[in-house]
Amino acid sequence: MLTRLAWLALEVKYLDPARSFYAGTLALPVLEEHAHEATFAAGETALVLRRPTAVPRGGLHTHFACSIPAAEYDAWWDRLSAEGYELEEVRFGETRSLYCYDPDGNCVELGESTVDGPGIDGVFEVALEVESLERAEAYYRALGFEPVDRGETRRRVRLGGPVALELWEPQLGIADARGGVHVDLGFETDDLERVEAALEGRSRSLERRQGELIARDGDGHHLTVRLGDSSE
User: Fold this and answer.
1) Distance between CA 27 and CA 15 in Å, rounded?
2) Where do the domains of the chain lie?
3) If one looks up domain 2-185 in CATH, what number appears?
4) Partners of 157 in the beta sheet?
5) 24 within 8 A of 65, measured Cβ to Cβ
6) Helix residue spans in 12-166 (DSSP H)
7) Alpha-carbon distance 106 to 109, whole Å?
8) Which residues, in sequence order, are bridge partners of residue 48?
9) Which residues, other chains included, contact 201 with Cβ-Cβ below 8 Å and sequence gap of 6+?
10) Residue 169 is inside which H or E element, if any?
11) Ramachandran region of residue 227, left (φ > 0), alpha (ψ -120 to 50) or beta?
C-alpha cells in the first residue's frame, strides 16, 4: 500500500547549527533551502529541517536510523569521535550501529548495511512516541505495516513496511533516545483510494488534496501520502 518513505521532517530551534550538522558532519547533499527550512538527500528519502512557522512543525527529539555501507562504519566512528561526539555502539547480530545526537536533541543512528553509498544512503527506521500501543499499532497495520518485534520488558513494537516504525509508549531507548512527538512523515503509494479507506475513521483529521492525503494519527503525528511517480 505504502511504497516509499518520501520524507522525514525535524523541528529545529535554529537552522544554521542544524544545517551545519547535516550538511557538514553527516555530509548530506542540500536539495533546497528557504528562510525557515532546509532539505537534504538521505538516499531516496528527503530529510527536512524546519524552524516552525506553521503546522506541520516536524518532529521533536526524534530517533531515526540511516543506512551506511558496512565498509565505511569504522571511518564514521573515528571521524565523529574525533569531532567530539559522544557515541554509543550496539550490535544487532552481525551488524553494528552507532548513535549520536544532533544540535536539537534528535538521536541519529548510523547502521551498517549493504547500501552502495558513499555515505548515508537511506532512512530505515523512525521511532514514534505513542500514548496507546494498541491504538497506534492498529492504525499503522491498517496502512500495511506488520509487527516484526515486540519489547519483552518495555511497551514497544517494531513494524515493518517501507520504513521500520518503532512505536514506543513514553520511555528511553538505546542511547537514551526518545520516540518523536508530532513527527511529520511523507509516504508514496500506488493506491491512494485504498489508503484513504484505511485512514477514514481512524485519523484525528483527514484531508484530501489533489494527488495526496494529509492525516493526523491519534498521537498527533502528521502523515502525508501521495501517489508515487509510477502511479501518476
Assistant:
1) 16
2) 2-185
3) 3.10.180.10
4) 150, 167
5) no
6) 15-19, 73-82, 133-142
7) 10
8) 9, 39
9) none
10) none
11) beta
What residue type is assigned to position 38 of the chain? A
User: 29-52: per-residue pLDDT in tens?
Assistant: 999 999 999 999 999 999 999 999
From the list 121, 134, 136, the residue with the least C-alpha distance to 180 is 136
Q: Per DSSP, what are the bridge partners of residue 129? A: 168
Quote the cell numbers at residue 19.
544545517
Task: Count the alpha carbons within 13 Å of 53 in the hemisphere toward its beta carbon.
Answer: 6
Q: Are 223 and 215 in contact (CB under 8 A)?
A: yes
* Residues 38-94 pLDDT 10s: 999 999 999 999 999 999 999 999 999 999 999 999 999 999 999 999 999 999 999
CA–CA separation, 141 and 129 (whole Å): 16
Q: What is the CA radius of gyration of the chain?
A: 17
Cβ atoms within 10 Å, residue 18: 21
Please identify which residue in the block is written with the cell numbers 513496511: 161
Q: Is residue 113 helix, strand or coil?
A: strand
Q: Would you state the cell numbers that stand for residue 186, as one nine-digit string?
A: 511523507
Specify the length of the chain in residues: 232
- Quote the pTM value: 0.95
The answer to whether residues 113 and 67 touch, using CB atoms and an 8 Å cutoff, is yes
